[in-house]
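Lab notebook, bench 4. Still working through the backlog of constructs that have no structural model yet. Next entry is a single chain of 81 residues. Request: give me the structure tokens for it.
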Amino acid sequence: MKIDRLKKAIMNTYTLNLQAPWEEVKERLKENNIALSEEDLAYEPGQEDALLERLQHKMNKDKQAIKEYIESISSNTDKAG
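Model written out:
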């Protein structure tokens, strides 16, 4: 039971809370970082970990920082790169 709760807590850590549609967020991300490709930004709800892993390698930041960056762009409060 403890392991299930831990897994759930970890999964929730990387759930994106978007305030705008993903397509709009994706375009903003590409405007802020032209090195990001369509493949880098491929995303389906529930697949946050895969997206964050790709961006982690591309942007050289940890997953939590990337999650916060995406969410800030989503809410139009753009965190500086």
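Notes after review: The chain has a mean pLDDT of 85. The helical segments are 2-13, 22-32, 48-59, 63-74. Flag for follow-up if needed.
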